[in-house]
Amino acid sequence: MQIKNIMSEDLITIDKDQNLLDGLKLLRKNKISRLPVVNTNQNNEKELVGIVSERDIANKLGSSKVDKLSPSKLHISSVMVKDIISVDKTMDLVDVANIMLENGIGSVPVQDEDMMIGIVSKADFVSLCVGRPYERVTVGEVMSKNIISVSAEDRLIHARRVIIDNKIGRLLVTGDKGELVGIITSKDIIRALMDFKKHTPEKYQKTQIKNLYVDDIMSGNVSAVSSEDTIADVAGKMMETGFNGYPVVNDNKEVIGIITQTDLLALVAEIE
Length: 272
Fold this sequence. Notes:
By secondary structure, the protein is an alpha/beta fold. It is built from 11 helices and 11 strands. It has helices at about 20-30, 55-60, 95-105, 120-125, 140, 155-165, 185-200, 200-210, 215, 230-240, 260-270, and strands at about 15, 35-40, 45-55, 85-90, 105-110, 115-120, 150, 170-175, 180-185, 245-250, 255-260. The N and C termini lie close together (about 10 Å).
């Protein structure tokens, strides 16, 4: 199957000279995690010059180099990834899936000659996982057992660093016995940092940011799945809720893994 058959044609872009606050508003309004960045040339044509994600913005807002700057004063061009990987509309979806996996990226622009005509993300591949072949595969066969987590007592700046270092979009929050108590995402961190900078005087920000804890920010009511659930079931849940991943727990509510869109993307590349 060619990638044009599953790509999203409803292109939502942002100009490189718009600010981070504009980008955050677009991401939230459209419930997406990445935006193609464009520049209008002399012929009034929009050229693709980069891509920006929630994680990129979270990294920038938490940097000590920009402590005194608000999101409304930082341009998208200061955050965007300039080395764009794009694909042709006729490429096979398995080839595109492998490109995304090999480069650790969540979406790629789709081009027809030199024109961007769409974008394909991990979420677009999830829709393929509701078919019959995926009803035969369980979560336990696919999930990642490498659990990256923090505790509710950890500082927010520590959670942000763990997310950056591991290039992930969410962190599980676990208790002393390994039980699931919450989840914290890049979105949560962005909102917390914006609110903190808005309400805390600049001269106090460097010291008071240490008073922000995971427990203050995390979502406590977390949906989880079982290792016995099918991939088709989980894919359906992801499409319904818009969640990018689910913790996997056993009967004692202990975390035994996590299943994400990346895991489903790899499965599609294998099965298709």
